[in-house]
Amino acid sequence: MTLEPGVKDLRRWPASVSAPSAGQPGAEPAPFTLVFLHHAGGSAAAFVPFVRCFPAEWNVFSVDLPGRMMTRGQRACRTSTQVLDFLLPRVRPLLNGPFALFGHSMGALIAFESARELSREGMPPAWVGLSGSAAPESRLDRARRHLWPRERLTAFMRELGGTPESVFEMPDVLDVMVRVLRDDLAVVDTYRRHPGPPLRVPVSVFTGQDDPVAPPGAAAPWSEQTTARTTAHSWPGGHFYLFDHVEAVGRAIRREIDAVCPAAR
Hints:
Elements: E1 7-9, E2 33-37, E3 59-63, H1 80-91, E4 99-104, H2 106-120, E5 127-131, H3 150-160, H4 171-189, E6 203-208, H5 216-219, E7 230-235, H6 246-260
Parallel strand pairs: 2-3, 2-4, 4-5, 5-6, 6-7
Antiparallel strand pairs: 1-3
Helix pairs in contact: 1-2
């Protein structure tokens, strides 16, 4: 099965955009599927290092939102509703069997809303991982940063880290990154919790202990957004803590999934 533009099989990155799919006619259901959702200004490629943390039989996918890599040229998403309209038709065909969603920063908001929508459709995930994001009722990032001038956005990128310093010396590359970040921040800064009931699936909250955007205290109220079990994990570091602790974060994801989904073991 050829994957939709934007969908990445992280086990084959970057050699192939095609993969056997559990949803393909005649294919056996996947033992487990894990879908990663990227941060504002980021891409699917950020999650490639995590693949080695999971069993070889798991499917591990991610999706690039418009404006980057193979989705370049498509109209950017600037609201969470537009993101779901782009994302869910690409994700649903991947889900033939138990699955989980893990999102970082903007990706956490999208993972949460995707899980709620899929649950309404009778396709609840086994588990949702929410990383680097304050809970909807305690978010601090309401500054409408997508309206900031280029210089302020560039300074914000430097402040958060996660962008190689060499990028700031390449004006053309930086222009693209600022444009993508601006569109993604419009999604984040205009986000409000979509109407409807809370989740009914287990949730794990992941934070960096020194994250200025989503400190552990601001992330803790995610527990109010599900009626099921909630756990919390925190590591040293700022907003992009997880990329400095790939093995530890990957092990935590694996343990949490194993605890709630026997089929994944």
